[in-house]
Amino acid sequence: MKRKLPVLLAAAAVILEAIPKSAVITVTGGEEAKRLYFSCFDPTPFLDRSFGPLLTAVSSALLLIAALIHLSGKAAGLLRALAGAAFVFSLLPLFGNGETRCALGIVIALVLLAEAGIVFLPLPEKERQTARRRKKKGRS
What we know:
Number of strands: 2
Order of helices and strands: HEEHHHHH
Radius of gyration: 19 Å
Largest sheet: 2 strands, antiparallel
């Protein structure tokens, strides 16, 4: 389960980032300000000096690929590095001015935080637990 959960969380992050309201920029024209919503994969906010959404989308896509490779038992270090980078990149829009924050961006940051927590924390695997139980029963 520990190997499958990072794949599910990375896939959820990529799906949330593909939603057209996952990145926001604010355009001011005269006296009024207008919020424009985009997908994180859209480079338009990047052109408006909002680097967080596109960097988050690219790192999350790479994270999904690394999580799929991790299913075979390899690339644990790469998975940790990409999980940390994706989480840090997801925080960039949140620490900017208040005009670039959106609720979906906060949800994406929380999903990537959960991903980083699962990858970095040593959670016990089921096989190890059953092997330990068998050893204890054999000694008794």
